[in-house]
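Technical appendix A lists one of the benchmark inputs used to test multi-chain prediction within the project. The record comprises two sequence entries:
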Amino acid sequence: MADVVLQPNRAAAQAARKRSSLHNALRRKSTVAFLMTLPLLLLIATLVIYPAFYALHLATLNKSMQRFVGLSNFEFLFRRETFWLVVKQSCIFAITAVIFKAVLGFIIAHFVHNIPAKGQRKWRGMLLVPWVIPPAMSTLAWLWLFDPSYSAFNYTLSFFGIGPIPWTGDPMWARFSVILVNIWVGAPFFMIMYLAALKSVPEQLYEAAAIDGANWWQRIWYVTLPMMRNIIAITTLFSLIVTFANFDIVRILTAGGPLDHTHIFATWAFRVGIEGSDIPLGASVSLFMVPILAIAAIFILRDVNKRGNEA
Amino acid sequence: MTTVTVDKAAPTRKVKYGSMSRDRAWALRWSYFFLVIFAIFFLTPPIYMFITSLKSSAEISAATNPWWVFHPTPENYIALLTSNQFLRFFWNSAIVSIFVVTITMLISVPAAFALSRMRFWGSATLATGVFLTYLIPETLLFIPLFKMFAVIGDWTGIQLINRWYVLLILYPTLTVPFCTWIMIGYFASIPKELDEAAVIDGASWIQTLTRIFIPVAFPGIIAATIFAFTVSWAQFLYPLVFTTSTDQLVMPVGIITSLIRGDVFNWGQIMTGALLGAAPPLIIYAFLMDYYIAGLTAGATKG
């Protein structure tokens, strides 16, 4: 009898203890924190880290993805002229575009910084428009400006006696156009970053430099640039990653043409992997972006952490 | 007394000040001059979009002055806004963006709170990891992801490729890391005393987040929301790879694949579509410029 009474009691007590320990566990900081970050962890693990390694695996398969072929996809790529063309073009594209974006952004930021504060907002707002429009949409406008038969640019240039320019038809001009559009899209981002950095340079430094008789060039070289060094480094490296991995602009403007002379890694990987349905080869192509991205990422991280320590 | 001394000091100062202000004035004039040139460079494509969108096909092929509209007509706008196909693209884009923004905020705000306030084992490494993930471009992952979803379709019979909702799974990989990162920045700037006070008053962690952190860091949340929206509205590669049927397409891909048929470019409609596609981010930007810029610069200039 007693047993019968006791047992449920004990069970209930146990259950209560269990519940309270579960309750305690749920109240514990680390558990709550873990639960809060769990969706993020799952997302990163399944949709970023896993695919990244899956790409490595895919790159070692043959076209029908049934046989392991080791590194022969890479061997095949190394023997193809187009591949080296793509490597060369990706580097030219990324480096030229980033340099011009950085320089243009720096110059524009200075001009905006120079004018009276109450007008700055308006100008900044106007100059950031290219960054706000979805790149796919604005590249369409450029495509239309470059149109072979109705090009608005050629129409304007014809008044100056400059003959029709094959903006997207000739390999060199096509490369120029692609880089130009990329600069157009990206320069405002640099402008905004540099403007924010310029505002944080203390005015007293310029006054001190002016008293010491520094001219405008010396002021930029000895005051502005050292003060902005970190932000310039981060912005440039970040833009290097984005530009190197660019897809939209090249895809819409030239689709890699004429004769593959504007293909960069991303567009060629798409052409080979999705349109040519050779997924392993496409994966191998896109993997070639990893080294340069990794180098840029390491430097960015170093700078970001340095900033964190300074703060 | 004081006025006298000021008057005395005035002549010598005035000369110097005058030359400086003359320099200033010239610098200002040059600044405006170059700013106007840059503004022309930056605004030409969108303005040209607008000019072309008002032209009829006849006027475009007449090859008159491309920079001017001689017979403005709303026919392109009418054609697109009454076409079911185009409205479908717009609708798909809107649905995808709204869902992605919601998912992003639901994932990134709690995670950012945990990572910035509740120090736990590996939290610092994880924060760095989130930033690294943000640096991985989508062009690196689209091929393995495509294959992954194809394999999932084969195994489970859940067809994800060529369905608009596959984008709800894909876009958060682009938005969540950056939104988490900027929210970590915003949360870290909230004084510690504030949540200590909340804990003393008996608030749970969840309450601290919803009652204190979210209201205080509201500007950051708006900035992150705007970022997530712009990214998901503008994304081009993933929908191009993962969706092909016209009823599953979103704006950017829809305009490019449906309005360009072979070699026939209907430029009037393409420009109208592009302008309408660019409108939502532009409108948000026009009204919430400061939040937009705050979100843009927060990633790098914090601290």
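The CA atoms of residues 40 and 90 of chain B lie 30 Å apart. Chain B touches chain A through 100 residues (CB under 8 Å). Comparable benchmark entries are summarised in Table A2.
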